[in-house]
Design brief:
Order of helices and strands: HHHHHH
InterPro entries: Mntp/YtaF, Put_MntP
Pfam family, one: Mntp
Protein name: Putative manganese efflux pump MntP
Function: Probably functions as a manganese efflux pump.
Structural class: mainly alpha
Strand content: under 5%
Subcellular location: Cell membrane
Radius of gyration: 17 Å
């Protein structure tokens, strides 16, 4: 393997982990909701799937629309994370309120979509490149799946340590990450 190809592979691995880190951060907060291991496994797989579909969609659409849609995708993702986090914080104070967003059903789709929006923008910038597109998509899916699992499992452990306060911490993480997306 020539040195330039090795450099491209290393770049793709780092890019995959960078894209998966938002899934890790948000999963840390979501994992504090006392989620069963089966749900954690399913959530990781769904996030991995979205981290494959979103950049592929971006690649297919091409760089023609990247300047117009890329900003709106990040904006909507940031707003969605702030809303989910705020709802978690408010539900921690109001025990009668049913949890609105959990990584189940439609909540799982929103969760996976929100953490995968930045990979759409990366897909737009990748463009159509021979076989590296497939490798990039596989790396994106693997890294995001693994990091989602790690975040949710760590969140589950933190919940055991912090009890009811962990939902406030988890919501704060989501709000903070959403605000970071909005203002960076």
């Amino acid at each position: 393997m020539p040195v330039y190809q090795l450099g491209e592979m290393v770049s793709l691995v780092f890019m995959a982990f960078a894209l998966g880190m938002d899934a890790f951060s948000i999963s840390l907060g979501m994992g504090m909701q006392q989620i069963r291991l089966k749900r954690i496994a399913i959530a990781g797989l769904v996030v991995g799937f979205f981290h494959t579909v979103m950049p592929f969609t971006g690649i297919v659409l091409g760089s023609f629309i990247s300047t117009q849609i890329g900003h709106y995708a990040e904006l909507s993702g940031g707003l969605l994370l702030v809303a989910i986090g705020a709802q978690m914080i408010f539900s921690a104070f109001n025990y009668e309120t049913k949890k609105l967003v959990q990584p189940v059903g439609l909540g799982l789709i929103f969760f996976a979509f929100s953490v995968s929006l930045d990979s759409f923008s990366v897909g737009l910038s990748l463009g159509l490149s021979n076989g590296k597109t497939v490798i990039a998509l596989i790396l994106f899916a693997a890294a995001s799946t693994f990091l989602t699992w790690a975040g949710m499992l760590m969140g589950k452990k933190v919940y055991g340590l912090l009890g009811a306060y962990s939902e406030i911490l988890g919501g704060s993480i989501l709000v903070g990450f959403g605000l970071h997306i909005l203002f960076s």
